[in-house]
Amino acid sequence: ALAGSDNIYTLGIRGVHDSKMLGANTLQEQKDALDLVIAAQRKMIADIVNPDVTKVSQVFIPYKEVLDVYKMGLKVPEDVTLMWTDDNYGYIRHFPDSIERARKGGNGVYNHVSYWGRPHDYLWLATNHPALVYTQMKLAYDKGARDMWILNVGDIKPAEYLIELFMDIAWDINSIENNIQGIDNHLK
After folding, report:
1. pTM of the model
2. 109 Cβ neighbours under 8 A, 6+ residues apart
3. What are the pLDDT digits (tens) for 11-34?
4. In Å, how far are 33, 123, 130, 159, 176 from 155, measured between CA atoms?
5. Cβ distance 83 to 123 under 8 Å?
6. Quick one: 18 exposed, middle or buried, by C-beta within 10 A (0-12, 13-18, 19+)?
7. I need a surface site. Which of 4, 56, 68, 149 has the fewest CB within 10 A?
8. 135 near 165, Cβ under 8 Å?
9. First to last CA, the chain
10. In degrees, to the nearest 5, what angle opens at C-alpha 6 toward C-alphas 143 and 162?
11. Could you tell me if 146 and 171 are in contact, meaning their C-beta atoms sit under 8 angstroms apart?
């Protein structure tokens, strides 16, 4: 019924208020739980959205401790996009390797220019340097994370410039470099 929609289904689970998963104390327990959760979520997608789950957009975001679970061997279905995150301060924690780049589901990036998480909130100040945003996203692009980019923004007003920068490079990854080269040529 929803097969023609633009929905993207996020697979996996974390804890309440974006905390570590509750009830699963070790990485192995978290992996076991995630294996069950992803299988159940895919079954729901097959039952409700499309019996061929490979035709439904899905993403898995190994955020914070979930990256450790992923690195210990969590199997994410090949058709699911892997979305790599920054460390909440603009530095991307993992870039896709050659095996991840070859996946049918592709790779993306989930980046923050706003962060709510005590004790290091920065909701009303855009503290990430524009050069950091550009260099990290250019590196992600060069390493194959090109299929889906999401920017976490709380209050728009203080982050307007960083949002525009992110969107400019998402539209044309070379736009910033081309502008810099144009300025350099003009100054010569």
Report:
1. 0.88
2. 83, 84, 85, 86, 92, 137, 140, 145, 148, 149, 150
3. 999 888 778 888 888 999 999 999
4. 34, 7, 17, 7, 25
5. no
6. exposed
7. 4
8. no
9. 60
10. 50
11. no
Q: Which three-class secondary structure state does DSSP give residue 158?
A: helix
pLDDT in tens, 124-151: 778 889 999 999 999 999 999 999 999 9
Strand partners, 92: 86
Residue type, 71: K
Name the one residue in this structure whose structure tokens are 């550009």. 134
Q: Which of 95, 99, 112 is nearest to 146 (CA)?
A: 95
Q: Are strands 81-85 and 9-11 parallel, antiparallel or unpaired?
A: unpaired
Alpha-carbon dihedral 128, 125, 110, 17, rounded to 10 degrees: 140
Residue with tokens 């209050």: 155
CA distances to 56, 86, 93 from 74, rounded to whole Å, are 21, 20, 17
